[in-house]
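hey so i finally got around to running the thing on that chain from the lab meeting. sorry it took forever, my laptop kept dying and i had to restart like 3 times. anyway pasting the input first so we r on the same page abt which one it is
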Amino acid sequence: MVNIKREIAGILQAHIGELGVDGIEAMIEIPQDPSMGDYAFPCFRLAKMLRKAPAAIAAELAEAIAGDELYVSVEAVNAYVNMRVDPGYVARTVLTAVCEEGVGFGRSDIGAGRPVIVEFSSPNIAKPFHIGHIRTTVIGNSINKIFDFLGYRTIRINHLGDYGTQFGKMIVAYRRWGNRADVEAAPINTLLGYYVKFHEEAEKDPKLDDEAREAFVKLEQGAAEETELWQWFRDESLREFERVYEMLDIEFDSYAGESFYSDKMQAVLEEMEEKGLLQDSRGARIVDLEPYGMPPALITKSDGSTLYITRDIAAAIYRKKTYDFYKNIYVVGAQQDLHFQQWIKILDLMGYEWSDSCIHVNFGTVSLEEGTLSTRRGRVVFLEDVLNRAIEQTRQVIRDKNVNTDDIEETAKIVGIGAVIFQELSSGRIKDYTFSWDKVLNFDGETGPYVQYTHARAASVLRNGEFTIPVPGSIDGMDLSHIAGDSAFALLKEIYGFPEAVLAAGDKYEPSVVTRHIVNIAQAFNKFYHDEHILVDDAKEREAKLLLTYAAKQTIANGLGLLGIKAPEKM
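ok and heres what got predicted. didnt touch it at all, straight out
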């Protein structure tokens, strides 16, 4: 698609060539107030170069470029050159691009096929897949889709929490209070019950913690009974997790969790030893990071068992050797900021120049209205329950409002689950929030159902208008003056901005940039829908308006797809 900013920069460059097209393009702004124009060029930086007042430079530039056919008007306002672009030019640019690219509108080849790992979700085996996991799961899935859309070769990794002292606790709990039939009947609920009971009993008898540590050491050493129990817990848990992933339509390329690196850690420890990084501390082994403003990093405990940090270092080295990643992205909560800073610094100290390609994408916490989530105390909201309740609520709304759909169950699933995902991705990822059923299931305002309904409304208009996508080149012969009104032009500009929004979302690792943009497109389309009669008798006017409707529908669908949300044709 034609880059209008760059076209403007090329026109300006003829009069201020010292800056170059790239420099000028970077300076061009889009005014917050549409009454100030579509684009604005500030002249402050030119004052020293041209030895003139910024306002005088703006006046001269405005006069010099005013005759170009790209503009409807050019005006100097103080130190700014405000430009209104020809709506017909924008319409032809946008509509041609959407029709030619379709589901690929907004795509980019900036990634050039370079491999990008996105690690996300990563629940703990034998523990609930609860509402607290939704953030890493849907943010990570969206980041993966965005990077794929930008031309990278993405690898989706679910780094399962399937190792560590908690498995010693689970093994001890099962031996003392467990029953195989109960676990097989309801794996996660039963194992959670054991885990909660362990912590209740350990408060009375601290020796249980020692017993759990011993069990984990045996697991690390490959003891048959402990390994068999651990594998069983893992298999049962994965079956439960897969059901939720299927509901969310999320897939992974690898489930290599912490346990996968158990036989790779010794080599890493030896390498750290050889490079003089390890120090003794009361029988444990640490890396001193105080010179870098961080506390020491514990690498192995006094009993010789490893920790998360050891496994993360081993995992990063393995991934670089296996995938030769361009970026290695970890979608993990902000509570782990220090952990990531420590092990990435250790990679740097080990001499791995690619350490800065390991990127921690953090996010805020989820709490319940009655307090914080706590697996140890059994205070959790199961994610599957959230999704099922959202579907149930949506099903009822469809029936109450007699919504137009061929398949109530499928629409309820698409809209209900879409509402949950959209709510998660509607604000900046770093913000903390309190989980509330009322907010998740509120379908009014700037929500997923609102955007999905707008898509379905556009689809209905296209069906009623018997719209077919124009063949390449035919748009040049269409009369696009019928979509030059304020609401139509505002919609065109929002659609035009979609590819840039996707780029920004990738640069910031921030799916909410896409979320906000498709809300803007939905609002702009609904205003156009109410301001203009689309299915008019005049064939050329109807053709132009249907074409704009199609462009809005396709762009909304593409945006929803990047969030991991489906776009219903009827609703």
